[in-house]
Design brief:
This protein has a seven-stranded mixed beta sheet with strand order 2-10-9-8-7-3-4, with helices on both faces. It has a four-stranded antiparallel beta sheet with strand order 11-12-15-14. It has a two-stranded parallel ribbon with strand order 1-13. β11 and β12 (329-334) form a beta hairpin. The longest helix is centred in the last third of the chain and has 22 residues, at 292-313. It is α/β, with parallel strands linked by helices. The mean pLDDT is 95. The protein is built from 13 helices and 15 strands. It is globular, with a radius of gyration of 21 Å. The chain has two domains: 10-49 and 293-390, Alpha-Beta Complex (Aspartate Aminotransferase, domain 1); 68-291, Type I PLP-dependent aspartate aminotransferase-like (Major domain) (Aspartate Aminotransferase, domain 2), CATH 3.40.640.10. The protein has helices at 15-18, 24-33, 52-63, 76-90, 105-116, 131-139, 160-166, 189-202, 262-272, 278-290, 292-313, 340-351, 377-390, and strands at residues 39-40, 99-102, 122-127, 143-148, 150-152, 155-157, 171-177, 205-209, 235-240, 253-256, 319-321, 329-334, 353-354, 356-357, 368-372. The protein is 39% helix and 16% strand.
Length: 393
């Protein structure tokens, strides 16, 4: 019998998928996955398990039968809790109608793009930035203009004039992450205010990824674009439960948008996945209400690990870096090692340590590596000793 079905080849798939850029970070993780005794620090995940009070809230909700479809934008209780959270932590009065619960921060980002952009729309992206965000723009078939941050010996800064000058009459939106993944840089209030005013005057959307807004080492939170926005500004703020409360595998996030976006985001959520599971959202409620102590425990550990790395890197004349202001990543480069992918492979092969190559976060990150230190002190110390042995002077 003849084969009536032609063999599948790349031409059967959409051009946007065939042309999607490679993710160097994912490639290194796959390379390391088959190696024995690897200390994996390439992904932004914590050693902490999700705390019991969050798990217990979800178990209780499941036992109460909250395992059916829920509202596409999230259960009312969690949306109200998010509104209360912004008032309690940030001192902001943001209505429930502007709170959209999503199945992860990544999902929130994708909802923004589905609501806003069409093929060939011009988007400004400040880099370095998480590769998944750049790939989301590629999948949306945007025209991406990369605005790299300035860097000097591992210290990062944003030239706001350069960012504004990159905008044209065709610019649809600006994408910025603060605090930054991978560098830990925090955008200051005067720059946020100036950029918000600039975008407002020109009718440009801003998507602000604020997933690391609570993982700060000074103060209670990082400055937010929401502090300078009205209810109807062209602003979406993306956030997530993943990092702040060790809930990476739960895939629960949220989006704050203008009032006019409510029905559009609702319909996108409805047709995308019907909305996040109600029982998981009760874990989110518990995190917002009772999670401050757990967050402090994490930050205390991250501070100790950051200091360990700072002290260890200072032992080498070849490492250029600045301690991050936020997040749990140390973004560093090694003098004489311009190929970060090759160096990441060397660390896997010779040190048994997996780190994310900086080029995964945009061209400006080339030569850097990202070390995730949201792990035990012992694991950080061991990984540090191993990589220092590979690049010893």
């Amino acid at each position: 019998m003849s084969d009536r079905h032609p063999k599948t080849d790349p031409s059967h798939f959409s051009p946007v998928m065939r042309d999607l850029s490679v993710n160097p970070g994912a490639e290194i993780m796959r390379y390391a996955a088959v190696k024995p005794d690897i200390i994996s620090l390439a992904q932004g995940d914590s050693d902490f398990g999700t705390p019991d009070f969050i798990c217990d809230a979800v178990t209780k909700a499941m036992k109460q039968g909250l395992t059916h479809y829920g509202p596409p934008l999230g259960i009312p209780e969690l949306r109200q809790e998010l509104s209360d959270y912004y008032k309690r932590i940030y001192g902001l009065d943001i209505g429930v109608e502007r709170m959209f619960v999503t199945g992860s921060g990544s999902k929130a980002m994708n909802f923004c793009l589905k609501a806003l952009v069409e093929k060939d729309d011009e988007v400004i992206a400040v880099t370095p930035i998480w590769k998944n965000l750049l790939s989301s723009l590629e999948l949306a078939q945007c025209r991406i203009t990369d605005v790299p941050m300035d860097q000097e010996n591992g210290d990062w800064s944003l030239d706001l004039d350069k960012l504004m000058d990159a905008c044209t009459a065709k610019t649809k939106l600006i994408l910025i992450t603060s605090p930054s993944n991978p560098s830990g840089w925090i955008m200051q209030r005067d720059q946020i205010k100036a950029l918000m005013n600039f975008a407002r005057e020109r009718g440009i959307w801003i998507i602000s990824d604020e997933v690391y807004s609570r993982t700060v080492y000074e103060g209670r939170y990082a400055p937010s674009f929401l502090e300078f926005a009205t209810d109807d500004d062209l602003l979406f703020v993306v956030n997530s439960f993943s990092k702040t409360w060790a809930m990476t595998g739960w895939r629960l996030g949220w989006l704050v948008g203008p009032r006019a976006a409510h029905d559009y985001i609702r319909d996108i959520a409805l047709y995308d996945y019907m909305g996040p599971p109600p029982f998981i959202q009760h874990g989110g409620i518990a995190a917002l209400r009772d999670g401050e102590g757990f967050l402090k425990t994490q930050i205390d550990l991250w501070k100790r690990n950051r200091q360990t790395l700072q002290d260890g890197f200072a032992q080498s004349n070849r490492i250029l870096s600045t301690p991050p202001e936020s997040s749990f990543y140390y973004f560093f480069k090694v003098d004489g090692e311009p190929d970060d992918i090759a160096l990441a492979r060397r660390f896997v092969d010779e040190a048994g340590v997996s780190l994310a190559p900086g080029c995964a976060f945009g061209k400006v990150g080339t030569g850097y590596l990202r070390f995730c230190y949201a792990v035990s002190e012992e694991k950080v110390a061991t990984a540090l000793d191993r990589i220092l042995s590979v690049i010893k002077d």
